[in-house]
Amino acid sequence: MTYHAKSEFLTVMIERGFLADCTDYQGLDDALVAGVVPAYIGYDATAKSLHVGHLMNIMVLRWFQKTGGKPITLMGGGTTKVGDPSFRADERPLLDEAAIAANIDGMQQVFAKYLTYGEGETDALMLNNAEWLDGLNYLEFLRDIGRHFSVNRMLSFESVKSRLDREQSLSFLEFNYMILQAYDFLELNRRYGCLLQMGGSDQWGNIVNGIDLTRRVLDHEIYGLTTPLLTTSDGRKMGKSQGGAIWLNGDMLSPYEFWQFWRNTTDADTAKFLKIFTELPVDECDRLGALEGQEINEAKIILANEVTALLHGEDAARTAQATAHEVFEKGGTGEDLPTLALSAEELGDGISIVQLIVRSGLAGSGKEAKRLIAENGAKLNDEPLTDAGLFLTADQLAQPIKLSAGKKRHALVTLS
User: Residues annotated as binding site for ATP?
Assistant: First the structure.
């Protein structure tokens, strides 16, 4: 990236590795220097929580506010009813109004940790595109908005081409998604003076559509900025673990498990993740990321503490670190570990060790649990677990037991 930014926001984006592309570097830079710019990122309400894959762009919004911009978090109460087809192999399941509302409630809890909402000049806005999409008149929309879109051009977008090239069907409902997202940008510009849409690099086509539409309808100059697709050094998509998605809501993933995810970062990713997911100075991120041997583990603990403190608070970060210290260095049970609490009714005459491994989240299926045991990857109270047929009774669960999968994943099982 060779562009030398004048604005603090673009400088941060470039220095910390947030920037993939921009529709007009100079134009956006000038607008940012001239005054307070409203900018938005859209989030469809497809789950009750955001996950680590969303965190990069949440940090972009946070930096945008810290550098004097006005962030807008746009909830897709309307577009979720259609579903974004971008780079998906199949159509998203359609959600009803109640499910969408519940998902939006869950997602809003996360944004409140990173952004300041209110009535001030740079206070964030929480909006819902159902505000303008739900009341659209179809014929008027086709006449006023649809006429600005070329089907030939829409078919050329990579997100659509990849689906058609694999001969996977793309419904008319999904095909309309890109028009609705473009219309969001138009309405945000018209209603709130929004000048910038940001998003992942897979949203480039949708963002450009919105810019073109707004120019055609309102003759306003607006901008788009994308962040890179974030992968780990071994090529995996960011945000997945053996146990599934790394959720940001504490009731879906404990602060300890969240902390442990970051502590398990590979050496090669440490500097990059410190720059993107913490607010430590760039020079310090580079220094920590360049450490080697045992010292790099200290850098990973700093990474885990900083990221966890932003989301769950400093107390949760300290508790997670103390639990990890007890579990890994002292061989203790760690009372703050993810816990499966069984009732006497659930337990009945007893329960198999395979069921416990699955129910505690250390394996996705009984088959996976048995393979873990067969490959000597499972432990019971820090002792190797070799018998996949082991059956535990109430007497054996009178004291909490600790289950382990590999060296880094643990859970407690208690009898409530």
Answer: 240
Closest CA to 158 of 214, 85, 98, 231: 85
Examine domains 8-227 and 339-415 and report if their fold is the same: no
How far CA 112 is from CA of 43, 72, 142, 200, 317, in Å, comes to 15, 12, 37, 21, 18
CB 116 within 8 A of CB 124: yes
User: Rounded to two decimals, what is the model's pTM?
Assistant: 0.79
Question: Could you tell me which residues are annotated as the binding site?
Answer: 40, 177, 181, 240
Question: Which pLDDT score, from 0 to 100, does residue 193 have?
Answer: 97
Rounded Cα distance between 239 and 51, Å, is: 7
Distance CA 321, CA 123 (A): 33
Superfamily covering domain 254-329: Tyrosyl-Transfer RNA Synthetase (1.10.240.10)
Domain 339-415 in CATH 3.10.290.10? The answer is yes
Q: Are strands 240-241 and 244-245 parallel, antiparallel or unpaired?
A: antiparallel
What DSSP assignment string belongs to 287-352?
Answer: HHHT--TTHHHHHHHHHHHHHHHHHH-HHHHHHHHHHHHHHHHS----TTS-EEEEPHHHHTT-EE
With bands split at pLDDT 50, 70 and 90, how would you rate the model's confidence at 408?
confident
CA distance 191 to 112: 23
C-alpha to C-alpha distance for 106 and 63, rounded to whole angstroms: 22
Cα–Cα distances in angstroms (integers) from residue 277 to residues 15, 21, 298, in the given order: 13, 19, 17
Binding-site residues for L-tyrosine, please?
40, 177, 181
Task: Delimit the domains of the chain by residue range.
Answer: 8-227, 254-329, 339-415
Task: Express each pLDDT in 207-246 by its tens digit.
Answer: 999 999 999 999 999 999 999 988 887 777 776 554 568 8
Question: Which uninterrupted H or E stretch holds 200?
Answer: strand 196-200
Identify the CATH assignment for 8-227 out of 3.30.365.10, 3.40.50.620, 3.30.160.160, 3.40.50.10490.
Answer: 3.40.50.620
